[in-house]
Amino acid sequence: MLPSFVAAQAAPTPVVFQNAAVHDPSVIKVDDMFYVFGSHLAAAKSRDLMKWQQVSDGVTASNPLFLNGASNVFTELAETFSWAQSSTLWAADVKRMPDGKFYMYYNACKGDSPRSALGIAVANNIEGPYVDKGIILKSGMWGQPSHDGTIYDALKHPNAVDPHVFSDRAGKLWMVYGSYSGGIFILALNPSTGMPLPGQGYGKRLMGGNHARIEGAYVMYSPVTSHYYLFTSFGGLDSTGGYNMRVARSLNPDGPYVDAQGNDMASVKSDPTKPLFDDASIAPYGVKLMGSFLFERSLGDTGTGIGSGYVSPGHNSAYVDPASGKHFLIFHARFPERGDQHEIRTHQLFMNADGWPVVAPRRYTGETLGAVRREFVQGDYMLVNHGKDISAAIKKSQPIALNADGTVTGAVGGSWLLTGSNGIEIRLPGASPYKGVFISGWDETAKSPAMTFSAVSREGVSLFGSRLPPRTEAQVVNAVAAELSLGNTSAVTANLALPTRGTRGAVITWTSSNPAVISNTGVVTSPASGDVNVTLTARIAKGNTVVTKTFVVTVRKAGGLLAHYTFDGNLADANGIFGAGSVTGNRIDAPGGSIAFEAGVKGRAAVFNGASGVRLPNGLIASQNYSVALWLKPAALTAFSTTFFGARTTESWVSLLPMGHGGVGGASMLWSGTAWYDAGLGMTIPVGRWSHVAFTVRNGAVNVYVDGSKRFSGAGFPNVFTGTSGVFALGVNWWDAPYRGAMDDLRIYGSALSDADIAALVRQ
Amino acid sequence: MKHTILSFLLAACCVSAHADVISSNVIGFDDLTSSETAVIADGYAGFNWTGAGVIGADAYPDSGFANGVVSAANVAFNHGGGTVTISNAAGFDFIGAFFTSAWYEQELSFEGSRAGQLLFATDVSYGIDTFAPQWIELGWRGIDTLTIYNSSGTQWAMDAFTASAPAPNTVPEPGTLALCGIAAAGCLAARRRRPLQRV
User: Fold this and answer.
1) Is the model's pLDDT at A4 over the cut of 80?
2) Residue A502 located in a structural domain
3) In chain B, which residue's Cα lies nearest the Cα of A4?
4) Same domain, yes or no, for A538 and A681?
5) Quick check: A590 contacting B, CB < 8 Å?
6) Are B70 and B97 in contact (CB under 8 A)?
7) Which of A69, A551, A654, A685 has the smallest C-beta neighbourhood within 10 Å, fewest atoms?
């Protein structure tokens, strides 16, 4: 097989992705360009399914899809917005009809009820402008007759949203649609006009009902198996909703659709006697293709970061390329530690020996299914078992080995077979054989090609495997040892997170030279006075191979002053514990910049020029109990510009802002992302005058003070500094305009100071 | 033609262990013109080459092409990251070669056949990285075709390809191959070789 990252001759072609955000992407190919249309009038296009260009985003008057002289989406679809009592649009689908024109099946929903309208807008060009032809379906007409003549009942009637229009092999035109409510329905359309054929009401129900959380229906016909495949997403779409993609199949476009166990999906619906949105009723059904997962990067693995995977991937479309025969699954995904940010993803689909789709575990990079050699597929793997549940839990990979003798060992035991030229059959206890394929893919964490497998069982459970390069036990333990770090251990006040696992099942055990101060599991008992040095020894074992690595940890007196930057002409820690700060450019990791000093509140103060910052030593704060206090004299107020900034990752950080965002009215605030926490102070510290600002955190309880007065008090503040590798800076972060103004007397404590303590700092 | 002391030693070792091997031939590709597009012409150094080209070490600094040079200034490589076959209808003994992956860590495996009959196959892979050439020694005797497979579909570099012409009337029958394998293993610690059978 020749993935796209291989050049014709000697040079490599770098794997380059360009991401765009289209929620609920529905694909249509026009000439050599793939387009996806989704919710909120977002669209994007790509020639290679790797580099996406955003075409439009957001239901605004300027959205080019509907901008047409004086007309825009609001004027064009006014009736729809009025009916749905909404100002946005849900998942669109565009189909090219025999007249050569592009028919957009748009829809809007009230959101907290299935009051929706679904209509057609037509354009000569795929990118618009689209002209409304009118609403074809409505739902949520409470107390009124619905399309089938009976009073609308959301338990059995559909929510008229999220359509997919497709032609079957006989040339008939169909639309599947629906979300929650009465389920997924299919309606026969006029193949010439795209309008519903008369006398169908809402059409035929295919699955769901009683508000079962099923949506995102899409039908793909596969010439490989001569089946129609009905994809849906179960669960809730947000990062904690457990969204996951499932499939059922039928020989007929309008069903009945069954899963791999033969269950008729029409009988899959929520138990009306259970609370609303009862997932347990539906979770056992359908073939689950992919849910939230993570190929977790372990200590000693190639690359950096936590690994690669998705959160709540779903609401897919699919495309079968008539020339290559390749099947593609195109969906949106959220990502571990990235909140609700989402992007388009494309993965190949393959049909297993039983005619059920399996999804390539890695995103598409041009690879083609081909013959594999046994010696290149046996070895160590990261294994993800997607299970059958609807859960916010991210399924993390576990280490296994596909051994040369046909056994599977590691986190699970069993056996495996290479079937045919690229097939895999895995047998694990308690399940039918998992059948699928080996396919080379691109490991985004290791930044290299990697063999993968994807397989599904008759129970509808999918496995993903991603192979690791061959390593000896000695190589494994040495790699783990090389990466094993406890961060800054020069001033520890809180418990240490001591890793216990490395890559490929390597086990790390710890021994403390002074368990009374640091236990063998990392529990720190700070001494009553003075510092204590403790040696921690890590024993790293893989099989019979062992290496050790030692760390000297200085445990500080409990609750004391950790660091004190006085800015008296330098950036040194007057406390003598931590190192000096260093000047940065306009971002936390940018070179350049300069810091001046002037007369301050006490002695001299640091002056930030709006293009510079100070990087402080890593690990300044490493617990859930701490205080930060400093004097600030802004020269200007700019939203988001930080003064004190600390981060575990780019997704988990704390930022003290003289001027916050619009959500707090631009007031000064303590901000934490991306588990978003806004501690607005209800006032803005003045420009050109010194203010004392402090915040204290104790296990999520946060207080923020200005000039000794408590301005904010709350609970649930994110626990950001869970390790000793936190990154800290003054005046800069990774994103925003740097702080402009002066700063003096920064103090950091290893405990949450009291109101009186803070007031005393102001008086000092 | 220059080549490393190591390759000399390895080749010499193998020669001394097999009295029927009359000569060894270390091919460094340095007398060919570097070209990303041209393939190695059939007949070069007495072999037919399929899917192989020659590239200069200076073509891609810091790549496995540069790091994989054993004899200056060229290495052979697999065009388009594909499979390479090297053949000589009269038969030859493949001793070994240095391999380096051009862009990504990957693995190699090999097959040796004669008259279309598979005589040897590696049943586990040889990992190669991009940093330094790795000597892979197989000591396969009496083959007429060597096939080099790779795991990732990306390019690798090969240098100091070492083979010898078989002595007259010493082309082994399949039944004798296991014994040859033992002898070669004793000399060169040839790893991961399993003659005749494939899993």
Assistant:
1) no
2) yes
3) B153
4) no
5) no
6) no
7) A69
Q: Please state the three-class secondary structure of A266-298 as a single string.
A: HHCCCCCCCCCCCHHHCCCCCEEEECCEEEECC
A340 is an active site residue: no
Enumerate the domain spans of chain B: 5-195
Active site residue A279: no
Is the pLDDT confidence value at B7 over 70? Answer: no
In this predicted structure, the answer to whether residue A622 has a pLDDT above a threshold of 50 is yes
In angstroms, rounded to a whole number, what is the distance separating the alpha carbons of residues B150 and B108?
Answer: 4
With respect to residue A704, please indicate whether it lies within any of the assigned structural domains. Answer: yes
Report CA-CA distances (Å) from A752 to A392, A523, A549, A699. Answer: 32, 19, 34, 9
Backbone angles phi, psi at B142, to 5 degrees: 70, 30
User: Which of A2, A10, A375 comes nearest B77 by C-beta?
Assistant: A10
**Are A488 and A576 in a shared domain?**
no
Q: How far is B160 from chain A (nearest CA, A)?
A: 19
CA distances from A150 to A116, A147, A157, A183, A233 (A): 17, 7, 10, 17, 28
- Best mutation target among A4, A9, A402, A451 (most B Cβ atoms within 10 Å) is A9
Contact call for residues A328 and A340 (beta carbons, < 8 A): no
Rounded to a whole number, what is the distance in Å from the CA of A378 to chain B's nearest CA? 8
- Tens-digit pLDDT profile for residues A659-668: 998 889 899 9
According to DSSP, the β-strands at A293-296 and A395-396 are: parallel
Query: B121: buried, middle or exposed (CB in 10 Å: 19+, 13-18, 0-12)?
Result: buried
Average pLDDT of the segment spanning B103-118: 97
Q: What is the mean pLDDT of residues A410-436?
A: 97
B118 lies within 8 A of chain A by CB:
no
Structure tokens at A206: 């295919």
Question: Which residue, of A524, A555, A586, is where some domain finishes?
Answer: A555
> Does the residue A646 lie in any domain?
yes
Which architecture, in CATH terms, is B5-195? Sandwich (2.60)
Domain endpoint, select from A555, A588, A606 = A555
pLDDT score of A651: 86
pLDDT value for A262:
98
Look at residue A79 and tell me if it is in a domain: no
Q: What is the number of structural domains in chain A?
A: 2
For the ranges A2-11, A53-62, A631-640, A732-741, which has the lowest average pLDDT?
A: A2-11
Give the residue from chain B lying closest to A368, CA to CA: B153
CB-nearest to B155 from A10, A374, A451 is: A10
Query: What is the extent of the structural domain holding A505?
Result: 473-555
Residue A524 shares a structural domain with residue A485: yes
In this prediction the pTM is 0.83
Chain A: closest CA distance from residue B40 (Å)? 13
Task: Please answer whether residues A236 and A216 qualify as being in contact, where contact means their C-beta atoms are separated by less than 8 angstroms.
Answer: no
Angle, helices B177-188 vs B5-17, to 10°: value is 140
- Same domain? For A508 and A572 the reply is no
A617 and A686 in a common domain: yes
Assess: ipTM above 0.85: no
| CATH, residue A689 | 2.60.120.200
Domain identity same for A542 and A573: no
Q: Are residues A511 and A571 in the same domain?
A: no
Work out the minimum CA distance from B131 to partner chain A, whole angstroms: 15
> Does B199 reach chain A within 8 Å, measured CB to CB?
yes
Catalytic residue among A76, A132, A162, A215, which?
A215
Query: Using a CB-CB distance cutoff of 8 angstroms, which residues of chain B are in contact with residue A469?
Result: 105, 107, 127
pLDDT above 70 coverage of chain A, percent: 99
Instruction: For chain A, state the CA radius of gyration.
Output: 29
Task: Search chain A and give the residue with CA nearest B151.
Answer: A376
What DSSP character marks residue B185? Answer: H
- Which tokens is B74 given? 């060229």
For residue B181, pLDDT over 50 is answered with: no
Across the range A373-399, mean pLDDT stands at 97
